[in-house]
Amino acid sequence: MANIKSAKKRILIIGKRTARNRRIKSHLKAIVKGFDAAIANADLDTAKEKLALAEKRLNKAAAKGTIHKNAAARKTSRLTKRFNQATAAK
After folding, report:
1. In sequence order, which residues have a C-beta less than 8 Å from that of residue 18 and are 6 or more positions away?
2. In a domain, 2, yes or no
3. Closest among 88, 64, 65, 67 to 76, alpha carbons compared
4. CB 3.0-4.6 Å disulfide test: which of 27, 30, 58, 80 passes with 72?
5. Residue 1 falls inside a structural domain
6. Would you say 45 and 15 are in contact if contact means Cβ atoms under 8 Å apart?
7. Is the pLDDT score of 12 beyond 80?
8. What is the model's pLDDT at position 90?
9. What pLDDT score was predicted for residue 7?
10. In whole angstroms, what is the distance from residue 67 CA to residue 73 CA?
11. Residue whose C-alpha is closest to residue 38's, from 30, 28, 48, 26
């Protein structure tokens, strides 16, 4: 355990940031699972909405530093590619 006052404060801040990052990442996973389910059910309208929401939340998470900006871009690209393939197949 830290003895210095500033180190104790940093431990509290790290805990808050870790909790925030976990919430954001968990929410992102839920959105992506919803998108996957919509694609699996061939529900393209819902998939389109989920894709827009996923892109928005990924970019927001990247802006906050929760995930790297290139990781957000990569995930968005892969989701968009899957949506376009599902659209073309139909």
Report:
1. none
2. no
3. 67
4. 58
5. no
6. no
7. yes
8. 74
9. 95
10. 10
11. 48
Domain count, the chain: 1
Residue 43 CB-density burial (10 A; 0-12 exposed, 13-18 middle, 19+ buried): middle
Task: Give the pLDDT band of residue 89 (cuts 50, 70, 90).
Answer: confident
Q: CA 43 to CA 47: how far, in whole Å? A: 6
pLDDT at 1: 77
pLDDT of 50 strictly over 90? yes
Is 5 inside any structural domain?
Answer: no
- Residue 58 near residue 75 (C-beta atoms within 8 A): yes
pLDDT number for residue 26: 98
State mean pLDDT over 53-65.
Answer: 96
Q: What CATH number did the domain enclosing 39 receive?
A: 1.20.58.110
Residue 53: give the domain boundaries.
Answer: 11-89
Residue 35 CA to residue 57 CA, distance in Å, equals 13
- Give 90's DSSP letter: -
